[in-house]
Design brief:
The chain is of the alpha/beta class. The chain has four domains: about 150 residues, Flavodoxin domain (Rossmann fold), CATH 3.40.50; about 100 residues, Translation factors (Elongation Factor Tu (Ef-tu), domain 3, Beta Barrel), CATH 2.40.30.10; about 120 residues, Up-down Bundle (NADPH-cytochrome p450 Reductase, Chain A, domain 3), CATH 1.20.990.10; about 110 residues, Nucleotide-binding domain of ferredoxin-NADP reductase (FNR) module (Rossmann fold, 3-Layer(aba) Sandwich). The strands form five sheets. Strands 1, 2, 3, 4, 5 and 6 form a six-stranded parallel sheet that branches. Strand 8 and strand 9 form a beta hairpin. Helix 7 runs antiparallel to helix 8. It starts with 7 loop residues before the first strand and ends in a 10-residue tail after the last strand. The relative contact order is 0.09. The mean pLDDT is about 95. The structure holds flavin-adenine dinucleotide and flavin mononucleotide. Flavin-adenine dinucleotide binds next to strand 13, strand 14 and helix 12. The site of flavin mononucleotide has 22 residues, from helix 1 and strand 4. Its EC number is 1.6.2.4. GO terms for molecular function: flavin adenine dinucleotide binding; FMN binding; NADPH-hemoprotein reductase activity. Keywords: FAD, Flavoprotein, FMN, NADP, Oxidoreductase.
Length: about 575
């Protein structure tokens, strides 16, 4: 850092990219205040060196950290977290600030950020600005821009810095391949997550950076209605992938071809062109925003998120390309951290679920170069699904139970969920005799049945919240087949109508009949005049619930959306 003349380092703890993106934005903005920053992944740094930052004049360590699971750190912050817990180091003189990313609906709201903020101070570091709390259940973008404006003001005041002009600078350099600068196709990425040709040459072990191309064995609709809930079975034979009931399977989806082509049309761009984006900061560990070289079509299809609502910095940067002054002024206003700007952003972008495609359609004079847009858009993330099978019954496949996302927006457009709509079309046998493949990896979870089979369990799983419990019930069915004593197994399920969206009705009925399920309580919210939800059934069964979890020391599990306020 010292040699590069930098005095700000922004660390991120990120699983799905938001904290990493916020870190990059903070680092980029530092130049505006005459500072020079770098972004750092704690997993790739020797955090023992943190104290050395004090040797650099006017230096600050900023942390953007998300919380996961039971208030746990992200994978890339795990080691750093353990280091802090095991004593850390004397950080006297280190100046720091923390922005926490979380979601208020979780019990351990922003636990990691809160812990880090307190722990750094305990180790002697000095807080330059108060902890920021971002709530992903509301408007985390607004939380972040509000916090960072105040953070920078405070830094300017403490370090006696002047606010400079806002400059829009590119982070990556464009390299175009054409007749003058050719590249052979075997050096071009075609959608692989990290390793070139990893899909053509599949090699175990398979994980997040090296997904397994799993064949779709079964794909059917579980609903008897217009809506879709997919039951998909993904093959594992030969992959060496193992799982436990309660684990998650992650799927790398593809964006809808129509949307990809629409962007090409709107920006008048030949999407077959091959290009690379190379980081202008040679010291950065992140050389490219996504695997490069690749074609624009592949970048839009596999690597960038083109369907969620873009963040304000994207709008600010593309405003520069508006040829219509009104469009330019509008984008500048909507991306500004003023009250008016925030309100407009919340209304025009968030409430109306406007994606980048919609924005380019609605503001046709805005035509950013596609490579700049690709630099700004977040990376397309894998989608996680609770595995709805048990390896005891299905060692060679994982089952997924997924509701297909489709909804109408405030601008009368129909938005379709990326992964679920892509999966919906993945029917076995639909690819001219070729196997229909889906890139996946397995993620371990802590969601487990009790170690002792005799321990009774209550499972509350409305809608697709049933998914992991189907795996649990299969597991308990298997134990009973081996004559193991198994405790009470009670399930609460809820959906709209018995005739339409009662998931796995046949299986559940069979498990009640053969005694695997001791009790099955099902709430059909729309089958009578008044609404009945699982929470109403829970309220009616307080005595039995207490008997299981209190007297018999059973376990209670909840998966999916359950408004527990109704129970209190
Ligand atoms: C650990 C874990 C386990 C999961 N398990 C399951 C599971 O078993 N089954 C399952 O179906 N899902 C599960 N999910 C959710 C799943 O990962 C995906 O988020 C979901 O399938 C949608 O993905 P998509 O790509 O189709 O939709 P996306 O393209 O990601 O679109 C979804 C987004 O659209 C927006 N949206 C959706 N509906 C509306 C609406 N009516 N109005 C406005 N905006 C809306 C929301 O912002 C939502 O986040 C799980 C998630 C996690 C983190
Ligand atoms: C499976 C899962 C578990 C989560 N657990 C928590 C939690 O315990 N506490 C919390 O405040 N937020 C929790 N969150 C919310 C994330 O921290 C939040 O969405 C954050 O913005 C993600 O940042 P990232 O994209 O950088 O990973 C959870 C999110 C998911 C998907």
């Amino acid at each position: 850092m010292k040699s590069g003349g930098r005095n700000v380092v922004v660390f991120y703890g990120s699983q799905t990219g938001t904290a990493e993106e916020f870190a990059a934005r903070l680092a980029k903005e530092a130049t505006r205040y005459g500072m020079k920053a770098m972004v750092a992944d704690p997993e790739e740094c020797d955090m023992e060196e943190l104290s050395k930052l004090t040797e650099i004049e006017n230096s600050i360590a900023v942390f953007a950290v998300a919380t996961y699971g039971e208030g746990d750190p992200t994978d890339n912050a795990q080691e750093f977290y353990e280091w802090l817990q095991n004593g850390g180091a004397d950080l006297t003189g280190l100046r720091f600030a923390v922005f926490a990313l979380g979601n208020k609906t979780y019990e351990h709201y922003n636990k990691m950020g809160k812990y880090l903020d307190v722990r750094l101070e305990e180790l002697g570091a000095t807080r330059v600005y108060e902890l920021g709390l971002g709530d992903d259940d509301a408007n985390i973008e607004e939380d972040f821009i509000t916090w960072k404006e105040k953070f920078w003001s405070s830094v300017c005041e403490q370090f006696d810095l002047q606010t400079g002009e806002e400059v829009s600078s590119r982070q990556y350099e464009l390299i175009s391949y054409d007749d003058d600068n050719t590249i052979s196709d075997d050096k071009v990425f075609h959608g692989e997550v990290a390793r070139l040709n990893s899909y053509a040459n599949q090699k175990a072990p398979f994980d997040t950076k090296n997904p397994y191309l799993s064949p779709v064995l079964v794909n059917r609709n579980l609903y008897n209605s217009e809506r879709n809930c997919l039951h998909i079975e993904l093959g594992l034979t030969g992959s060496k992938l193992r799982y436990e009931a309660g684990d998650h399977v992650a799927v790398y989806p593809k964006n809808d071809t129509n949307l990809v082509e629409r962007i090409g049309q709107l920006l008048e761009m030949d999407l077959n062109k091959v290009f690379a984006l190379k980081n202008l900061d040679e010291d950065s560990s992140k050389k490219h925003p996504f695997p490069c070289p690749t074609s624009y079509k592949t970048a839009l299809t596999f690597y960038t998120d083109i369907t969620s609502t873009p963040r304000t910095h994207v709008l600010k940067e593309i405003s520069e390309y508006a040829t219509n002054e009104e469009d330019k002024a509008f984008l500048k206003k909507i991306s500004s951290p003023t009250d008016e700007g925030k309100q407009l952003y919340a209304e025009w972008v968030i409430k109306n679920c406007r994606s980048i495609v919609h924005i380019l359609e609605d503001l046709p004079s805005v035509k950013p170069p596609l490579d700049h847009l690709l630099e700004l858009l977040p990376r397309l993330q894998p989608r996680y699904y609770s595995i709805s099978s048990s390896p005891k019954l299905h060692p060679d496949s994982v089952h997924v139970t997924a509701v297909v996302v489709e909804y109408e927006t405030g601008t009368n457009r129909v938005n379709k969920g990326v992964a679920t709509n892509w999966l919906k079309a993945k029917l076995p046998g639909s690819d001219n005799g070729h196997k229909v493949l889906v890139p996946i990896f397995i993620r371990r979870s802590q969601f487990r049945l009790p170690a002792k089979p005799q321990t009774p369990v209550i499972m509350i799983g409305p809608g697709t919240g049933l998914a992991p419990f189907r795996g649990f019930i299969q597991e308990r069915w298997h134990m009973r087949q081996s004559d193991k004593p198994v405790g009470d197994t009670i399930l609460y399920f809820g959906c709209r109508k018995k005739s339409e969206d009662y998931l796995y009705e046949e299986e559940l009925t069979k498990w009640v009949a053969d005694g695997t399920l001791t009790k099955l309580y099902a709430a059909f919210s729309r089958d009578q005049n008044h609404k009945i939800y699982v929470t109403h059934l829970l309220k009616n069964n307080m005595k039995e619930i207490w008997n299981i979890i209190g007297d018999k020391e059973g376990h209670i599990y909840v998966c999916g959306y359950v408004d527990m306020d109704v129970v209190h």
